[in-house]
Amino acid sequence: MAGELRFGLLGVPAVYDAAGEPRPLRSPKARALLTALLLAPGRVVSADALTQALWGDAPPASARASLQNHVTRLRRLLDDPARLHAVPPGYRLLVADGELDVRVFERHAAAARAAHAARDWDTVEAEAAAALCLWRGAPLSGLSTTTAGDALVQRLEEARLLVLEWRYDAALERTPERGAELASLVPELTSLVTEHPLREAFHRQLMLLLHRTGRQAEALAVHRALRRRLVEELGVEPGDGVRAAHREVLSSPGAPGAPAAPAARPARAVLAGGRPTTSPPGRAPRPAQLPPAPSHFTGREETARELRERLTDGGAGAPPVVVLSGMAGVGKSALALHVAHGLRERFPDGQLYVNLHGATPGVAPLTPGQALAALLRDLGAEARHASDDPDAAAALLRSLLAPTRTLLVLDGAASAAQVRPLLPGGAGCGTLVTSRSPLTALDGAARFPLPPLSAEASTALLRAASGRDDLGAGHPLVRLTGRLPLALRIVAARLAARRALTPDALAGLLTDCEGRLRHLEYDDLSVRRSLDVALEALRTSDRESDRDAARALGVIGALDLPAYGALLLARLLGAPRWRAQAALDRLVDVALLEETAYGRYAPHDLVRDFARAHRAPRPADAFGATALRWYGDTARAALLAIAPESRDREDRLAVPAPATPAPAPDDPAPDDLEGFGSLDAAFAWADEELDNVVALAERHTGDASGLVPALVRNLHPYLQRRGRLTEWGTLAAIAVDTARLHGDPAVTAQALTDLAGHRFMTGRAGEALALNDEALALWRGIGRASCVRRGLNHRGLLLDGLGRRAEAVDALTRALDLARSLDDPLSEAITFSHLGNLYEHSDARLAIVHHERSLAIGERIGHAVVRQSAHCNIGYAHLALGEPAAALGHFEVSLRVHGEYEDWHGESHTRLGLVRALRALGRTAEADRACALLLERAAHRGDTHMTGLARHQHGLLLHARGRAQEAHEQWRSALTALESLDGASPKVVTELRELTGGSSSPSGV
What we know:
By secondary structure, the protein is of the alpha/beta class. Strand 2 (about 15) and strand 3 (about 20-25) form a beta hairpin. Helix 4 runs antiparallel to helix 5 (about 120-130) and helix 24 crosses helix 25 (about 575-590). It is elongated, with a radius of gyration of 40 Å.
């Protein structure tokens, strides 16, 4: 049915029958459904959007089923099964060209506009009549329109008024001497003048019609009434068009049949590009208001290209709107002007520019009325602007811009509400908005968030703007300015003004973070003043979320952590979680924070300096203590999820925790503690927060409250199982120092035990033994038998690694006796494992017997770590016996068990054994892959010990393939790594020394 009307929205939504007659839908729900589908013809409309259209914000429980019923009825009414399709996630109504009255109207209106510009009055009249006959009433009558529907209605009504204007212009031009035909138009225009009392075009046309039909007095009365209204209500005079018509009325008698005086005819004008058109009298010269294009513009080529494509892809739909957003100084205005200047030829009817002052220091943002007044004045329509009627002013702006191709640049928008009334209605126009906010409430806009410049573009801008061609790509100034164009321009200006000031000297000044913002000011350029605007607006806002956001920035400045989440901020603010989340979101909206990942927020480096300068007045240590307590409490919840039930976990939880301060009477009940429903959730939380924990601990090395040891103690199972050796070492050392300051022997003993565990895993056995022995003495003094047993177990393991095997047997035997006396099968299994490792040096078969005892206990109590460790250790015993095939099977089982319980120590040693077994079996390709994976994971965790052992094996694999030079490079790296540790793997170190000295062939340890 292409080419024949099928659907109507210009009136009550209707379906046209076979005879071409519109049949309005009787059911309100059917009208709403059809309208929602026709607002996106040929496109999928989601079921959620249709539900909203039919029931608003309160759909019934049966909404989905009811929607399907309404769709079925609409299909039946359309009597065309292929017309309405269910396409996930909703429905699509197929609408061919020429089947929707809105599209047909717009096509005729566009033809009338083109004919009007070419002064082809016959065509204007024909096309205008064809367009207007489609109207059956107000668009979308009979239903509550959606936001999209409201916009469409406004656009169509404006277009209809323009078509009427063009039609009356054609009548005045075609039949100036035929008074009877003109007289028939007077009642219509009289009604329109009454309906639109500020639309001067209709007044001008009515005056001319009355005058040319011999009704001069009435024409003058129309002028007098309009002028009185404008002067009394608005304080302005009529525009040039009305004044020209007034002169015509006064200068000729206006008898019937008299030709129109030349002064009354619209003035002939030529638009850019040489196309003749008729400009309404009083139209101001074509606007060209863009400020100068930025000099030294660099970078952002791809973004600029996408902006140009968006702004010139208007088509027949709504005019394109683009929003450039980002933090202060990121270069939004510069990019907007750079792009706008490049599009002047694509918008030949002019370029309008308004600074909305949404982020101008010391200047209040323009109201929509003020911005409309400026735009209307620049378009030559000042007389029609009413400051107390912004809707009328916005409608007038749309009318003036509708027939043009004009680019509108709205710089520094504060909100979507400020921008919305300023948007043009003509499909040939384009709007480019800059704002710190993405203005997500602005429907239909394409959004381009701007990050800082790349390092290369930053360097290029510095060189070009400063004239210092010797600035290298990696100069510290690039980093110290945060790659922000505003900061880069300030630095460049200072370098250009003072040739004696070297880039290195200026970088030295900026290195002081506390004073960096002072040096990023020059003349009227200032990073700090630009940021002040946003903070001051938040502080003085009437909205609670804005004031919370201002407080939150002060807390962020006081605590100064790498990143933040809502739960931590809720504790710091003493507010419910939802208020903390709202504050963070608001800081993102005004570009004072970035959402780096879902639920994670961090400030740009310069905003971080700004936040420090505005830190909350409460002592920073108070915020630190609050944060340490929250992290400690949440880490305890993570411990319960990560560490399996055991005597070790009970002992860890039994260490005295710091005293909790009593809450103030008016404090809200806390809702900021994270609960972990799964192991993965606990690991994810710790992964996310670890950088914060390290930063916080490093700032509290002198804290004696016990909060730091408690936090590290609770986080220890995560650090060990994840193999986060670098962070574990840092935190464990701080925990020992602060535990000694705290003075509780149990707290100190546990901190020493954990640090000893780290030193053991990183191959520093001698240091680990000294720490463990100090902890063991404290446990004995306290009388904690289970902790003494653990200390003896660790002592035996460490003595074995140091070659002191007689002492190791004594320690492990006493640990085994204590485990049995405590009825602790897990500890017994661990001790059997250590004894097996000890006997491996002298009797590998006896070692296997002890490991099998450990495995049997692990199977009986269902303990994954014991099972994993036992299979790994049995594998190493078989390697010692020269049985790599038997060893391989146990390593493979151990890795499968590792899938049940993540533990880096067990995983890394199992993978090392796997490499050795595969190499011994001649399966070199598999050994290479296994070794590469081990090296990658060890390097990621900062495990120097395992990296050295893996490089040793890698060298052996390379040497076996004849790549001796590469093998020696691996061995030298391995030796350097292992010799940096305290007596780690002495047998491997001995062989590496021989291999790198060239005195022996590989033995393959």
